[in-house]
């Protein structure tokens, strides 16, 4: 599980959903059918599932979590809308099963915004799409500079959305009516937005790109970080390896407490407290609690556990201490390429220029044309052949192993083939010129 300690906006709100100047405000989006009652009994869910199955077309779906409040990433509310069925607000917490809903959704295309934020928590309650359309990803492929839901709704549909409850604690019960209205609005116009964006993709010749991207998303699983404790804020202040061990063990102890209580780890003690304890390495509870920077709701309550972690770290033999840095399985950071491998650095420079030009030409961000990690891995260790046709085929095969989609390989592989060949040629010196 990824570290959920840092509060972050829940869902689809993003920094690009900026509020327009008052004189330019679009009409406020409202619920055309009014606010539906929340579904919190099995009987009500079965009734709506029957309506959903009888509806037509794709299904708009969203989920609300309690990021920044709870340790888990579970869905505390699921919103759905379909033509012929209307909008539903489903509270999965008190329901014995969501099987009727999963059955009703079989064969229907899901419309989500920023699907990777919701697919895992929906799968956890038994809801998995057979096909989907992601409006955020569609916006990226189409080259929209800002792809937050509110921004796209305003730009394409001419209506303004409220986003004031995006970081709310959705585990709260009962849910306030204003929160429920906010949640229902998130699926209110997703169907219309999807239809407009699908037409744009078709007109731009990108419909097949989108189809492959959406199909790829069906297999999405969240990344699990190696040594997530290394993301502790200000950890660079800890110089000793025993101190690093203390950061690790304190982080793991905090994570275990957070999981037990289902609260975000930062609400137990903040990262700053972990760092202060690792710097001081106190040997007893009173010395720990006397540290000026050691604070938090769980600082004193769990002080025995914190001291046990610090003592364990202090007693570790050298061979068991964590390394200062992790050795990754990929290439070095690009800024080090010129020193470590000048030929690879030239390949990278040629490739970056070519892919950037392609992005401008097709109106799509370069990171959508090819994942940056795949680009770096290929150029650091390219195929050995330099015969153009063989190299092109080998580049395509290698990109496919990095999960590049066929449309990406078709567009980018020729550029990378040429960059590999060009990188082998040393630039002429001033004297030679």
From TrEMBL:
GO terms for molecular function: exonuclease activity. SMART domains: 35EXOc, HRDC. The lineage of its organism: Bacteria, Bacillati, Actinomycetota, Actinomycetes, Propionibacteriales. It comes from Nocardioides phosphati. Keywords: Exonuclease, Hydrolase, Nuclease. This is 3'-5' exonuclease. CDD domains: RNaseD_exo. InterPro entries: 3'-5'_exonuclease_dom (IPR002562), Exo_C (IPR041605), HRDC-like_sf (IPR010997), HRDC_dom (IPR002121), HRDC_dom_sf (IPR044876), RNase_D-like (IPR051086), RNaseH-like_sf (IPR012337), RNaseH_sf (IPR036397). It holds the Pfam family DNA_pol_A_exoN. Residues 240-320 form the HRDC domain.
């Amino acid at each position: 599980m990824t570290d959920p300690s840092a509060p972050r906006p829940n869902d689809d709100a993003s920094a690009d959903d900026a509020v327009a100047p008052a004189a330019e405000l679009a009409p406020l989006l409202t619920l055309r059918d009014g606010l539906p009652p929340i579904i919190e009994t099995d009987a009500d869910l079965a009734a709506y599932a029957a309506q959903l199955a009888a509806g037509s077309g794709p299904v708009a779906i969203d989920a609300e979590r309690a990021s920044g409040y709870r340790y888990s990433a579970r869905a505390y509310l699921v919103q759905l809308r379909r033509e012929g069925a209307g909008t539903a607000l489903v509270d999965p917490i008190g329901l014995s099963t969501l099987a009727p809903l999963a059955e009703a959704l079989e064969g229907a295309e899901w419309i989500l915004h920023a699907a990777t934020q919701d697919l895992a928590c929906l799968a956890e309650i038994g809801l998995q799409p057979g096909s989907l359309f992601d409006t955020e990803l569609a916006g990226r492929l189409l080259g929209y500079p800002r792809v937050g839901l509110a921004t796209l709704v305003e730009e394409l549909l001419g209506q303004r959305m409220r986003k004031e409850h995006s970081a709310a604690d959705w585990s709260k019960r009962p849910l306030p009516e204003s929160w429920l209205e906010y949640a229902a609005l998130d699926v209110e116009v997703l169907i219309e937005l999807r239809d407009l964006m699908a037409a744009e993709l078709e007109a731009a010749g990108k419909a097949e790109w989108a189809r492959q991207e959406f199909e790829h998303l069906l297999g999405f699983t969240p990344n699990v970080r190696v040594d997530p404790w290394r993301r502790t804020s200000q950890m660079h202040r800890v110089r000793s390896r025993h101190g690093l061990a203390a950061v690790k063990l304190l982080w793991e102890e905090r994570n275990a407490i957070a999981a037990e209580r289902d609260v975000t780890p930062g609400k137990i003690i903040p990262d700053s407290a972990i760092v202060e304890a690792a710097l001081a390495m106190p040997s007893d509870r009173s010395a720990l609690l006397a540290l000026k920077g050691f604070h938090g709701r769980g600082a004193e309550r769990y002080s025995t556990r914190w001291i046990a972690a610090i003592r364990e770290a202090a007693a570790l033999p050298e061979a068991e201490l964590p390394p200062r840095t992790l050795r990754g399985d990929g290439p070095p950071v690009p800024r080090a390429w010129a020193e470590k491998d000048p030929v690879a650095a030239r390949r990278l420079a040629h490739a970056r220029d070519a892919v950037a030009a392609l992005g401008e030409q097709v109106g799509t961000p370069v990171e959508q044309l090819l994942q940056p990690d795949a680009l770096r891995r290929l150029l650091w260790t390219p195929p050995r052949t330099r015969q153009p046709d063989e190299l092109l085929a080998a580049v395509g095969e290698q990109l496919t192993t990095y999960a590049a989609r066929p449309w990406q390989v078709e567009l980018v592989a020729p550029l990378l083939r040429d960059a590999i060949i060009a990188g082998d040629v040393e630039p002429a010196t001033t004297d030679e010129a």
